[in-house]
Amino acid sequence: MQDQRLIRLDASRLTLNPPAPFPVRIFANSSVPVEPAAVDELRSVIATSETLDRLAPGEWSIERIAVTPDFHKGAGIPIGTVLETRGAVIPQATGSDINCGMRLHTTALPAARVSECLDQIESRARHLFFEGGRQIPMTGRDREALLTGGLGALFDRKPGSQLGGQWATVERQGWPLRLDHVEARGSLPGSIHTPVLRDWLGDPDRLSRDAQIGSIGGGNHFVEIQRVERIIDRQTAWAWGLRAGCAVIMVHSGSVSIGHAAWRLVRDLVEGAYPRGIRRPENGIFPLGLGTPEAKAYEETVAAAANFAFANRMFLAASAVEAIEGELGEIEARLLYDSPHNFVWRTAGGSRVHRKGATPARGPEAMEGTPFHGWGEPVLVPGSMGASSFVLAGLGLGEALDSASHGAGRALSRGDASRCAHREFDDFLANFRVVTPLDFRRQETRRRADIWRRKIEDLRAEGPHAYKGIRAIIDTLAEAGIAKPVAELMPLMTIKG
Fold this sequence. Notes:
The protein is an alpha+beta fold. Helix content is 35%, strand content 23%.
């Protein structure tokens, strides 16, 4: 039964009832469940227009909101919300996991060869990701270049293959030459405004390793070795290097602790900048006026965290390549695309487009100057654990603010999901290859019931029962004209922190 606070406009679009003072579009076909708590939260976000009008009448405004099919309750602003503002920026509309995003590499390696060696690749992956196998040394100057100038500035310093480890893989694969396959070339103008980030740099001239770079993080983040299960758009798939039956590497991660440290500074900035004597917003959503010192510090801090996230996903992909190569020899893993979910973009007209749990899906003409001109922006939509993921090509639907889903979207909160479907999840886990810091096959692990139980609860919170069905999400994106499906991918092995 449809929520009475929504009006269905057609097979794939809804809007709010009563209407908001600006256009709101919710993209969901009849097979996509719409969570009442997410609608409550969305209606609360609408009240931010009153805050903007109270602070700068006629100058600050929300122009439009689009909601992607994976729409679900967040922390103040729903996941899947895309929000365009004029005159002001709303930091909470991008969330605390700054530049959480996706990265995908294609190979010509038959997935059947990977399947034959999964036990050995799993052991190598556990070492590389969780048991000291990360070798990503940098000096303090390298880290500062990364935060303030992104991948371009880091590569300009030429740390290179002489450092070994994942650096050697990055250089041998030629990824520094494929920055045109990364959103904004992975190189944003950042600055360090918080001591926590300054502390992360370390000694300017001494090589050192740290616990952050190359780490997956928690929650729904993962690294996955997948098989190209089905080609849907043959012409686009061929151009993008997607071959049926071949292995690909998908990475879903963000700025981990670096992003959360940046977010703590941002939270203090927005609350401290709110004028005294003016009623504070009941929904707890605080704007920053563009052109203010606080907004400048916000944008530079977020850019620094985003730069870290681009590098983090790159090194995670390098570790996955090494796990495969350790058994099967050298492969070529070409970067298809790397794109953020949680970020704020400037438009040509000066407005800001905030995406929280949504991915850009710009059309063929908007990608002029990139390898995707004429094709559309690659849209990477992962399914839940064990389910299909999809590659699509953006169509640039203005009504959706050129945005698509970033995944299947939660159907249950993490707490609810961890407390239910015990037998169902146990059966699933028995037939699915998931690599964690704990090796579930080892007898000593099984003897530590407390550790075993805690890890299983963490995994159950991300199990298939916790998410919406991915196919209804993809159908909605296609039916609405947001993006066209190119290929379906199936997991062979999922690596989770």
